[in-house]
Specification:
Blueprint (H helix, E strand, L loop, with lengths): L1 E4 L6 E4 L2 E4 L2 E4 L4 H6 L8 E7 L5 E7 L7 E7 L1 E8 L10 E7 L5 E4 L3 E7 L4 E7 L8 E3 L20 H4 L18
Length: 187
């Protein structure tokens, strides 16, 4: 596994080693020991799996408030997505900055999104499956959303008229949310 640092502290891209032969391929998609050896020590407790039938389905921006905030390890196992993380840690040098990467069944990349970030994705193919690990269980009372098209964040989703859930259509702007993340690290 190779960990690639991004221009936003703690937001990481993980590339598993792919072993190919005449039968196909094999990857080790997760190894707590190998990630810990590279400085990523996260105790994942829940796996989630979503399916989106149509290209242009947008899910996000989602997060859980502290003390039930979640770190996520996201991968796309069928099709392809434009995966986005937004730094919501007040006081962070990268507060309100976002980063997007393509995750696909083909490239096998994973995106590590630490606590204090909102997460969302848009499908760029039909028939998409996304799987992700979290280090905190789902907590309905801490579950929150921010509008995907919040002008203060200004994400380039590369799509017009996305397919949205009722929850995502009703998501508030960042300035109207009760985000409670504070930046704890030094840069």
């Amino acid at each position: 596994m190779r960990i690639i640092e991004t221009n936003i502290k703690d937001l990481l891209i993980i590339e598993p080693q792919v072993f190919r032969d005449s039968r196909g391929w094999f990857i080790e998609s997760y190894s707590k020991v190998k990630l810990k050896e590279q400085g990523l020590d996260c105790d994942f407790v829940q796996d989630n799996h979503s399916y989106s039938a149509q290209k242009g389905t947008l899910r996000g921006l989602h997060f859980q408030l502290a003390p039930k905030a979640q770190a996520k390890l996201v991968r796309c196992t069928r099709g392809a997505i434009w995966d986005v993380a937004v730094d919501l840690r007040k006081g962070s040098p990268t507060y309100k900055r976002w980063l997007a990467i393509e995750l696909s069944a083909e490239n096998k990349r994973q995106f590590f999104i630490p606590k204090g970030f909102a997460h969302g994705f848009v499908t760029i193919t039909d028939d998409v499956e996304v799987q992700y690990k979290t280090d905190e269980y789902y907590s309905p009372e801490h579950d929150r959303s921010i509008a995907y098209d919040d002008p203060e964040i200004n994400i380039s989703w590369n799509i017009e008229n996305p397919i949205l859930s009722a929850k995502d259509k009703a998501a508030p702007l960042l300035c109207d949310s009760d985000v409670n993340f504070e930046y704890q690290g030094d840069f």
